[in-house]
Every structure is written in C-alpha cells, then in structure tokens.
Amino acid sequence: MSILESGINLKKHKGKHFLTLLDYSSDEIKELLEFSLLLKKYQKEGVPHQFLAGKTLAMIFEKSSTRTRVSFEVGMTQLGGAALFLSSKDSQLGRGEPISDTAQVLSRYVDGIMIRTHGHEIIEELASFSTVPVINALTDDFHPCQAMADIMTIFEVKGTFQGVKAVYIGDGNNVAHSLLIACAKVGIDVAIATPKGYEPKQWIVNEIETICKETGAKFTLTNDPIEAVRNADVIYTDVWTSMGYEEETAKRLEDFSQFQVNKDLMTYAKGDYMFLHCLPAHRGEEVSAEVIDGKNSFIFDQAENRLHVQKAILVALMGN
Ligand code: CP
Ligand code: NVA
User: Is the pTM value of this prediction over 0.90?
Assistant: First the structure.
C-alpha cells in the first residue's frame, strides 16, 4: 500500500510543532501517513523501531482523556522513550503558573511537549515559548492527531483518497475542523451538515475552500443531513457537547435532535459506507447503537490508528 511515490523523508520536520494540519502541506501529510503505515507494520511484525531511545515527552492534560493519554504513552514506550503525564490539577499550571514559564522550564527537561487544553491561543503561546516541539492533543478548535488517524483509517479501508466522499454530521467543533482540513488536504471530497448556529468557524471554512482549490477536493457546507449523506462513502460524527461546553448540554440535545446518525439516515449513504467516530460516543444521542456497533463501523481501527500516526509524528518532530 503506497500513498506517496517518492519515499519518506522526515528530516525536514525535525524541531517543528504540530499545532494544526494547516501548517503541513498535502505531501507532508501523506508522507506522515506513509510512515504511520510502516510503523504499524513494524509493530504488528515485531520489527524493532526504537527511534526515540532516551527521549522524553511531557504530556499536559487540562481536559480528560483515555485514548490520547494511553496512545501517546504507549507510543513513546514502543519507540524506546518515555512519557510523563502532567495533569493541570496536580501541576503548578493549575495554580496559575504562566504557560510561558511552563514552556521554558519543560524545554530544559524534555524533548517534546504534548498538550490537551482549552483555547487554541494557549497552545500557540506554549509553542512560542518552547524550544522543543509542541504537539496538539486537542484544543477547542483543533484535533489534528485525531484527523491523521481518521484519514489513515479511510485509506486502509477504501485503498485510496481519490473519489472518496466523506461526510461529518453534527457539531462544527474541533474534530470537525481538523477532519475537514485533513480531507481537503489529501483530496477527499468532504461535506459537513450542522444545525444552524453550529457551523465550523468561518475563517476555517475559508482556509478549507482555499485548500480545495489547490487539491481539487470538493467541500460542501449544509444544514441538511440527508443532502450531505447522499452517496457518501464515509460517515463521521462526534459528541453534541464537547468538553468545556457542558453548561449548554440541554440546549444542544434539543438543537441536534434531527442530526442523529442512525439506520434511517444511513439509507442515503452508499451500501458499503464506513462509519467513524473519534470516541468517546453517546449511543442514542449523536449515533444509534445499531450504527456504531454495526458491521460498517470502524471505530476501533480508528482508535488504534491514533497510536500509529502519533508515533510517526513523534519520530518526525523529535527524532535524530
Ligand atoms: N478521541 C480522543 O481524543 O479520545 P480521548 O478523549 O479519550 O483522548
Ligand atoms: N469534540 C470532543 C472530542 C473529544 C475527543 C471534545 O472536544 O470534547
């Protein structure tokens, strides 16, 4: 399986940050995916790949996580390095130590910093003061590691990006932003259907439209889920209430009630559609149990691929 003709050259990424996929070209994203597929093969076949021996990743969490924490920590172990979990609750960050000081202190100890935080400006500030690579493990606006796993899973199942139509149904949130950018970058036609008032941010829509002009991908923004899903190959959804928005839960339950991904909606998709969800999921809300637990669901392959794409990103940014 090959995404790129030209082979893998990771050297150019050394020392870079990974804040959003907007900072990476189509070819660079494809190259990182190619390397992710190779690392997955190495891991399955027991081929040693300790490319980060002796290196340490600090992992700052200001929001909850299962997949991100475990996949980064296991990934660092498999690469021969170590990962350090720092909860904002138990570190000085939670007691008001400035992010700029935190960045400069951690840079003296570790070889990379991964952070899950609230406003995207927080990670931008961290990155501007850090002398080691900073990786975005979710902000209110983006979830680029997730999107890399998403498009890797699409490639594994569909065998190509060309002619694939992906649709995101629900909240125009961090996961949606990164998925749309990733699809546009690699040439997947992508649509999003949200309730009115929950569209992706306008400046990100503008970026996606610019990327599509370069890659030839088609982008559709609508408030009609049926229209969006017609003839789709990939159906994606995420929670209606993201972390940090909990006080809006009751209103969101009402506003999103017509946007559940269920068997009725899936009758408009292609027969061999694949269902994806970044997880955690709420069965009976954004997706019915029969769809998420059905034969078209690839959610656990998608979750597994977090490990492989993140290992590729870690090696590219932190490797020698
Ligand atoms: N998809 C994802 O990022 O999962 P966690 O919140 O469990 O890390
Ligand atoms: N949109 C969700 C994704 C969780 C992985 C959130 O931000 O809570």
Answer: yes
